[in-house]
Structure formats: structure tokens, C-alpha cells
């Protein structure tokens, strides 16, 4: 069975050597896959490549077995993402943003309001539903962006450091939302440098360093942080000797 999201030998280099180099990654339906690495490891670049925001200089990316550049436009309605900043329009209210996102993801008008109401409840946004997003805190803007990316139950969900601005209550809300998506068969890829957090929800952890996959960790394993830094250090030493 093909993966819901797959990168095969994907590379994209920038000046100075930054980028990603020969990455293989698979995320299957009903799986939460974590992507862990230090700042600058290439996580965001890889996620942009997986979503077609950047084109690889070599290798290929497929979604449900189809190359990204051959996917019909309708297939993208089954994808959700938050990369770097939540997509939310400052002069629209939280509810208006969610309604717009629902329609852009192909949700029929007849059910969009119900789906938005459910998302507002799930992400505890009732107090902010009629507030313009530009007036919200960074954490509540992030909740709006996450709700917009997840409310339509995407087949594939890609989240880049989604907990970076969330308070503890928001982290718990996101954790529950990710588990619900996994339970209905969504493929979820989430990046983080907080191993203790992603270990609570991930089925597997892929470690990247300097734009390369350098190993994997079992979320149920002991001493995750030590194991993570051991992989990174070993890779740094190998590259330093090359």
C-alpha cells in the first residue's frame, strides 16, 4: 500500500549549502509522524517541498501515489497545513476566517456553518469567534489557523512547529485534535524540537540534521532527548570527518 505522503530521494539546495539532501520519508494513513530536529535542520524546507510550495531539485514527492504536479486541483481540498505562520486574515473575525477556510477546502455551504461551530468548540474559540483576528494574541491566532487547517478532516495534514505559540491549554487541545484525525485515518506530519511533546502523540519520530534524515526514535522509548542528541552529534562528527 502506498503512503499517503511520500518523499523519495528529495533534495533542494540553497546558497551556502542549506536545504535538504536525499531525504526519504513516508507518512501512512492513520499515522502521526513527527519530524524532529534542531533549528535550521531543514524541517520547514522539507515540509514546503512535501506541500508543493517548493520544487525539489531532484527526487520526487507523491501524495496517495500521485506526483504532486499531476494531482488534480480537487485533491488539494483534502490537505491541511500550517507552515511558519497560521493563514488567517487579520480584518476578518475568527468565525469568518474559519468559514472562508471551509469553503476553500470544498466544504458545501449547507454544512459549512456546522463544521465551523464544531471547530470553534473544539479549539475553545467561543470567546473570540466575533473578534477580528488581528486583535487576538499569537496563541489564539495559532488556534484559529490550526482549526482552519483541521476542521475539514484532511486526508493529509502537515504542521510546522504548531505548539510554538500555544499555551498549555492550547497544547492539550491540539493533542486531542491530532488523535481524532489519526483515528479517522488521516496522515499527519508534525515538526517540533520539543521531543517530550511530540512523543505524547507520535507513532514514530524521524530525526533530521543538516538537511538529512539521520535516524529514527521510538516515542515510547526511554531517554529520548539523549538519544536524539546522540544521533545529531554522530552525524555532525561524520560530516566533520568527510
From TrEMBL:
Please give the family membership noted in the entry: Belongs to the ABC transporter superfamily.
The reply on keyword Ribosomal protein is: no
Q: By what name is this protein known?
A: ABC transporter ATP-binding protein
Keywords (A to Z) from UniProt: ATP-binding, Nucleotide-binding, Transport
SUPFAM superfamilies linked:
P-loop containing nucleoside triphosphate hydrolases (SSF52540)
What high-level taxonomic lineage is stated for the organism?
Bacteria, Bacillati, Actinomycetota, Actinomycetes, Micrococcales
Gene Ontology molecular functions: ATP binding
State the superkingdom: Bacteria
Domain ABC transporter: start-end pairs: 5-235
Extract the Pfam families matched here.
ABC_tran (PF00005)
Ranges annotated as spanning the membrane: none
Amino acid at each position: 500500500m502506498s503512503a499517503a505522503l511520500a518523499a523519495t530521494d528529495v533534495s533542494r539546495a540553497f546558497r551556502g549549502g542549506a536545504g535538504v539532501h536525499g531525504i526519504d520519508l513516508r507518512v501512512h494513513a492513520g499515522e502521526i509522524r513527527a519530524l524532529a530536529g534542531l533549528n535550521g535542520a531543514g524541517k520547514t524546507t522539507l515540509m514546503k517541498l512535501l506541500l508543493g510550495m517548493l520544487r525539489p531539485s531532484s527526487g520526487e514527492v507523491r501524495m496517495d501515489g500521485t506526483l504532486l504536479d499531476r494531482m488534480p486541483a480537487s485533491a488539494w481540498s483534502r490537505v491541511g497545513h500550517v507552515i511558519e505562520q497560521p493563514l488567517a486574515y487579520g480584518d476578518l473575525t475568527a468565525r469568518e476566517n474559519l468559514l472562508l477556510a471551509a469553503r476553500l477546502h470544498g466544504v458545501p455551504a449547507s454544512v459549512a456553518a456546522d463544521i465551523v461551530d464544531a471547530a470553534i468548540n473544539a479549539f475553545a474559540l467561543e470567546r473570540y469567534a466575533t473578534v477580528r483576528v488581528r486583535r487576538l494574541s499569537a496563541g489564539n491566532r495559532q488556534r484559529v489557523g490550526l482549526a482552519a487547517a483541521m476542521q475539514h478532516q484532511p486526508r493529509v495534514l502537515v504542521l510546522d512547529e504548531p505548539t510554538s505559540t500555544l499555551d498549555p491549554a492550547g497544547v492539550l487541545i491540539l493533542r486531542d485534535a491530532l488523535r481524532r484525525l489519526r483515528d479517522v485515518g488521516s496522515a499527519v506530519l508534525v515538526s517540533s524540537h520539543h521531543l517530550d511533546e511530540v512523543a505524547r502523540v507520535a507513532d514514530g519520530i524521524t530525526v533530521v540534521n543538516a538537511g538529512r534524515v539521520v535516524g529514527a526514535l521510538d516515542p515510547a522509548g526511554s531517554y529520548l532527548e539523549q538519544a536524539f542528541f546522540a544521533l545529531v552529534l554522530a552525524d555532525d562528527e561524520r560530516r566533520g570527518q568527510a
